[in-house]
Automatic annotation (TrEMBL):
Residues 280-356, 362-435 form the ACT domain. Pathway: Amino-acid biosynthesis; L-lysine biosynthesis via DAP pathway; (S)-tetrahydrodipicolinate from L-aspartate: step 1/4; Amino-acid biosynthesis; L-methionine biosynthesis via de novo pathway; L-homoserine from L-aspartate: step 1/3; Amino-acid biosynthesis; L-threonine biosynthesis; L-threonine from L-aspartate: step 1/5. One of its GO terms (molecular function) is aspartate kinase activity. It comes from Gleimia hominis. Signal peptide: none annotated. PANTHER family: ASPARTATE KINASE, ASPARTOKINASE. This is Aspartokinase.
Length: 435
């Protein structure tokens, strides 16, 4: 008997029919003797609909009220799901994030989990009751309802799994797991059988929309094995877990997923793409110690999360440098304003802003030991006639900025250059928006 935390995304509970299918799955697992804690997202596009509604009433709604509103979405799905399960003869009770002991800081709209005290959930498990927990929400130390940022239900699930020492955290979505690229762009993308937490972190941080970034961070920190799979099929999905030798995984991760490791591990695990970033280029900065420090402390002060940074050395003797960096498009305007105000202090000449860039990231732990990966990547792009704007790398990732319109073609070209195309089956997308 295992303790399983299951998380169902919005498309898995989009309507009564979908919810019944989920309820049946939960009842089956319960009847097989497992203890279950279930985390749910809001039904279908509820969160977006609530956002739209709010904007019709106030273009800049108070963040506190926004979190009150958005947290309601998950309360609807948790209570309905509990009703459905009870009707199938299995005891289930729903809990809000606060009731489930999800403690957060006070950042409305993007609260961080600061502690977990899931006493009521633990009691439910003890009493043989299926606990249904509203994802994406928590409570701050001053008793305010907070939300964890879009897609935050994953984080609720992994944090609960860590706190309860669950055997596995299953993330149910509308695709069969993680793919070597987005199957919506590359129909021949293959399901990844097993992938390390580290690689998943790189993919999630660079646009792969399958998992909330903080959920992966939690999974890595507390070593929670994740199984990302479809609620629309019974197929095995993707196991996200580190070393196969991990004793807790024995008997949980199917042998096939572990054996794959023993065969030759692929150099490249997958390709992520991101269309949500923008680029700022600053021309004619003073080339002296402290300029970059000042620049990026201003950017950090604007609460912008930057990713790539590229500096060009000044041309002979001019004493001026250019710096380009990427950041989320939503932070673009605010950051530009802060920098413009500091133009005199920073002493730059011009500043350019480009939205609509595309970023492709190639991720694979095998890059560490295999030279030539970047050459192959650049060659694939050049053969497809795609120009590279910026490049950045980590130990296990290479990212390139390309033109927005060329991003899909770039992903396809790189996918086949690294022999990631599947020859037999096409990836199935069951519906919904990927969450
Ligand atoms: N309902 C929230 C959203 O759509 C949280 C989630 O789905 O995980 O972002
Ligand atoms: Mg959602």
């Amino acid at each position: 008997m295992a303790l399983i935390v299951q998380k169902y995304g919005g498309s898995s509970v989009a309507d009564a029919r979908a919810m019944l299918r989920v309820a049946e799955r939960i009842v089956d697992a319960r009847k097989a003797g497992h203890n279950l804690v279930v985390v749910v997202s809001a039904m279908g596009d509820t969160t977006d609909d609530l956002l739209d509604l709010a904007s019709q009433l106030n273009p800049h709604p108070p963040m506190r009220e926004m979190d009150m509103l958005l947290s309601a979405g998950e309360r609807v799905s948790m209570s309905l799901l509990a009703m459905a399960i009870n009707n199938m003869g299995v005891k289930a009770m729903s809990y809000t994030g606060a009731q489930a002991g999800v403690l957060t800081d006070k950042h409305f709209g993007k609260a961080q989990v600061t502690g977990m005290v899931p006493e009521r959930v633990a009691r439910a498990i003890h009493d043989g009751v299926v606990a249904i927990v509203a994802g994406f929400q928590g409570v701050s130390s001053d008793d305010e309802v907070t939300t964890l940022g879009r897609g935050g239900s994953d984080t609720t699930a992994v944090a609960l799994a860590a706190a309860l020492h669950a055997d596995v955290c299953e993330i149910y979505t509308d695709v069969d797991g993680l793919f070597t690229a987005d199957p919506r762009i590359v129909p021949t993308a293959q399901r990844i059988c097993r992938i390390s937490q580290e690689e998943t972190l790189e993919l999630a941080a660079h646009g792969a929309k399958i998992l909330h970034l903080r959920a992966v961070e939690f999974a890595r920190r507390y070593n929670v094995p994740l199984h990302v799979r479809s609620s629309f099929s019974k197929l095995d999905g993707t196991w996200i877990a580190n070393e196969p030798a991990h004793p807790e995984l024995e008997g949980i991760v199917p042998d096939a997923a572990l054996e794959e490791e023993a065969v030759e591990a692929p150099i490249i695990s997958g390709i992520a793409h991101d269309r949500s970033q923008a680029k700022i280029t600053i021309i004619g900065l003073d080339d002296k110690p402290g300029t970059a420090a000042r620049l990026f402390s201003l950017v950090a002060g604007a609460d912008a999360n930057i990713d790539m940074i590229v500096q060009n050395l000044p041309t002979s003797g001019s004493g001026r440098a250019n710096i380009s960096f990427t950041l989320p498009e939503v932070d673009g305007e605010r950051t530009m304003r802060v920098l413009r105000d500091a133009q005199a202090e920073l002493g730059f000449k011009e500043m350019h802003y480009s939205e609509g860039i595309g970023i492709l990231s190639l991720v694979g732990a095998g890059m560490r030991t295999n030279p030539g990966v970047s050459a192959k990547l650049f060659d694939a792009l050049s053969q497809a006639g795609i120009n590279i704007d910026l490049i950045s790398t980590s130990e296990i990732r290479i990212s390139v900025v390309v033109k927005y319109e060329q991003l899909d073609a770039a992903v396809r070209a790189v996918h086949s250059a690294f022999d990631l195309d599947s020859t037999d089956s096409e990836a199935v997308v069951y519906g919904g928006s990927g969450r």
